[in-house]
Amino acid sequence: MPAASQIRALIVDDQASIRQVLANNLAQLGFTQVAQRKDGKEALDYLGQNPTHLVISDFNMPVMDGLALLRAVRENPKTQKTAFVILTSETSRDLVQEAIKAGVNNFLAKPYTVAKLREVLEKVFGPIT
Amino acid sequence: MDEILEIFFQECDEQLQELETGLAALAADRAEDDTVNAVFRAVHSIKGGAASFGLQNLVRFSHVYENSLDGVRSDRIQPTKEIIAVFLKSMDVLSDLVVEARGGASVDAQRVDESLTELKVVSGEAPAATSSPAASFDPAESEAEAFSPVPFEFEPVAFDFGDDFAEPASARKIVTFHPHDAMYGCGDDARNILVALTALAHDKGDTAQVECLTEALPAFHDLLPASSYLTWRVALPDSVAESEIRDAFDWVVDSCDFTLESDRAVTETTNSDASDEADAFFDAPASISEDTIQAMVAQSAGQALSRGASLPTTDRRLTAEAFLDDLAPPATIQRDEEPIALTGATVARKAEAASIRVDLSRVDDLMDLVGELVIAQAAVQSLCQKAGTSGHHELMQGIEGMQTLTRDIQDAVMSVRAQPVRSVFQRMQRVVREASSMTQKAVKLVLEGEDTEVDRTLIEKLAAPLTHMLRNAVDHGIEKTEDRIAAGKSPEGCITLSAEHRSGRILITIKDDGAGVNHKRVFETAVKRGIIAPDATLSEDEINNLIFTPGFSTASEVSDLSGRGVGMDVVKQAIMSLGGRIVISSVAGKGSTFSLSLPLTLAILDGMLISADETTMVIPISAVSEAIIVSQSDVYSLPDGTRIISKRGECIPLLPLGVTLGLAGARVRDTLEGAVVLVVENESGSRAALIVDEICGQMQVVIKSMERNYRHIFGVSAATILGDGSVALILDVSALIAAALSQTENKAALGVSELVN
């Protein structure tokens, strides 16, 4: 039962507006440690240096997409246990299945509400205080 | 939220541009592997963002668009020319929907539906059979459908927030290092040792963990300022050789204790208490500032204590959050340009700073200030000169240094404002597309030099004249398809829009492969409109230039497109108000070329200060090709009284500047022996020699618009404020050259009455 302020989160999305909205929403939930990166590659660089509990990533990004990021995160023993939530409006069943295979922890569908965000995160972490 | 929305719209613009580039590549058959993906991603991102902001119209449209693109992406659909045309059209609709969402003009619903239907036909989603598929589509529904049935239930992650991030234990060499009082006494600095050690780790592509042990630190009143209390423990990768480590201590080997242990895993150094660990992890600040380190190594323990004072007085590590815990981000000392640079957050910050969005008005403010700075700097310089300080070398050096700096700042600000013309050029694709569909002519637009950078104020102002000229080129320049075929040309017309830097200006050319200017018709029209006399004899160039005369329009059938009474004269005015020039050249049957020459910036100019008839003026230095002291034997008079100067076999018309500008008291000199003339040149290479009294110097001037503050004056492009606060006029060299040329060509004597020689 972690406190939201304990959770180190990383937002990965190529759109600054989406990142900012999500960061604001996380702040509403009490998150205080939220970083942002704009593609999978930058996210990996960040994760290599900053222990992180939670990654919320977009699916479709230039350079390195969310699925590739997820796989890379799962491959690295350092980040293996990091919770990975995919934020997406992607409707392709295949991609969703791929992500599940790769070990995604949950999905957050765009558009979402703060309540939905909490629900998704609580499924991952248990109740967040 | 509004700010974020604004960011979103800016992103939309970028995505639309990406989309346009991608579709253009597809259309031109030079798509690369990622092109389709990029195109898809662009629309997808717009959709995703729009959904987050509740912009339903945008979501609805981009969803359908995305589906069609997905077909292409997954190779279900071959992107034929027709399909790409649908995509392009839809892109225009999408871009208008973005404008609508932004609070602009609303989009015709029928146009949207039409596009939606076309897109659905492409994706095979809905042939015309289903009744109004666009209306029945509910994005929320489709999202739900896409997600809810996926049969999975996730297990909550069993996170123990205590011990997650322990690094896989790897063998490390642990160096413990305690300086004696004597080491500080000798002036040696513990920091140098730490830097050397971490550099060793860095050389191996690894990091070192530095930990400061403060157990020995006494309470404040027991503290002896000159004593050494601190001990450091440094964990180095095993690959660092022992001898290398010993070398690092070479200088201080007698004045410190150091021990070297091998094959100990780092994890052993952590606290055993799990909750402590968690605390340490979560309290860990993102970065450790350099001065924290400084404080840690400060010889003065008092200094160190002041930092540590806020901590519990136990002998826990001085700042537990700072010095490593292997859970906390490694405080890594890295050898860089700076003696100590911390990785982790520092690097992260650098990555974030790679690009920032800045409100344009701030950059404009900055530019204004730099402009003022340039003036102020010039003022200081001229005051110093007046005060007779030329003997004070240091002062002069200081002023020169300041001058260089000012220029650098100015260049830096300019480069911030500079943008490739790509953004405006790409918008032109749409203009041509619309124009060609409206006129039923097949026309393609080829862009060249889109990466040419110009000041962004200029970019914005280019859009309107370019739009007009391109419409004009499609409407009047390119012939009807059947005429093209009859003339043996390719049925598809081609317009080339290109940009390049030339002699400190930007040259934009619009070239079409149409019929060229019909001189006979232009002449007749001009006569009909009373612009010229029926018996006038005009050169081809003069006829070409007639189309820039106000109220002139050659299209015999007034078309929807460019026949709205707005002519090329408006374009010319717009270009001239930007300090630019427009030139047309045309070859019958082959097409016409419009060349626009514009300054790179509208703010600052390198000028040559001259005086003529007691008036100080500025000539743009880019236009000056040489300065000559006249020898009377080089000056020839033409029968009509105009004078020319022969220089290296070339004859250049002479122009008495004061007289040409109509300055009060100006008169034509009888003899020019010893007079100073400036040879000026325009883009097309025409020259004129301006007779001036004196060249006073060279300086950068801040351009203040004449038109905005007063009105247009012949021969003057703008004004500026000089260092002493006086106003000087900036000369419009091209106008002066044009005057000089017409003086020699049209035999119009400009007040020159006396013959010389």
Automatic annotation (TrEMBL), chain A:
Keyword entries, A-Z: Phosphoprotein
Domain Response regulatory per the UniProt entry, residue ranges: 8-125
InterPro entries per UniProt: CheY-like_superfamily, Sig_transdc_resp-reg_receiver, ST_Response_Regulator
PROSITE patterns: RESPONSE_REGULATORY (PS50110)
Phosphoprotein listed as a keyword: yes
Pfam family, one: Response_reg
SMART domains on file: REC
Modified residues (4-aspartylphosphate): 58
SUPFAM superfamilies: CheY-like
Coiled coil: none
Protein known as: Response regulator
Species this chain originates from: Asaia siamensis
